[in-house]
């Protein structure tokens, strides 16, 4: 099972996670779309791979996504090593801060990155655009669908 673990504040990361789930469904492997505030260590143990989807806030991942990693970090040490993962990040103008933060955390779990980071830039850089509900272009959502399908197909074929 592919666990798509997500958090969103303004809708962009939620839309990205939903698009990835559509792609995963096309790839053939089972998947679960799990909000970061309810995902548990047991959910992670049950997963054969992961897609972490969240926004970048102030150069790092959202607090709820960080809380997921904090809550699950110690219970998962030594239990999910070698499993594949990828990331999708909704960012205003950068995304690399969140990307680096997730990569450092999952290094402790010994996960393997199997796809390049998917960073979708919304251009939000002022209070009005940061707070606004996000609508992503079809091309950005297609990138997320493709990533979900890649992960699902790779898991289904045993490539990861």
TrEMBL record:
Q: Where is the NADPH-dependent FMN reductase-like domain?
A: 46-102
Query: InterPro entries, from UniProt?
Result: Flavoprotein-like_sf (IPR029039), FMN_Rdtase-like_dom (IPR005025)
Q: What Pfam family is a match, any one?
A: FMN_red
- The name of this protein is NAD(P)H-dependent oxidoreductase
């Amino acid at each position: 099972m592919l666990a798509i673990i997500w958090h969103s504040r303004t809708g962009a990361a939620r839309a990205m996670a939903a698009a990835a789930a559509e792609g995963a469904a096309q790839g053939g492997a089972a998947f679960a779309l799990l909000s970061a505030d309810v995902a548990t260590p047991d959910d992670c143990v049950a997963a054969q791979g992961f897609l972490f989807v969240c926004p970048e806030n102030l150069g790092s991942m959202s607090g709820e996504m960080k809380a997921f990693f904090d809550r699950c970090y110690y219970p998962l040490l030594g239990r999910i090593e070698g499993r594949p993962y990828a990331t999708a990040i909704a960012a205003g103008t950068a995304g690399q801060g969140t990307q680096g933060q997730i990569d450092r955390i999952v290094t402790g779990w010994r996960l393997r990155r199997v796809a390049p980071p998917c960073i979708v830039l919304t251009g939000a850089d002022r209070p009005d655009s940061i707070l606004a509900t996000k609508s992503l272009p079809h091309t950005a959502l297609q990138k997320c669908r493709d990533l979900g399908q890649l992960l699902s197909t790779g898991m289904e074929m045993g490539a990861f």
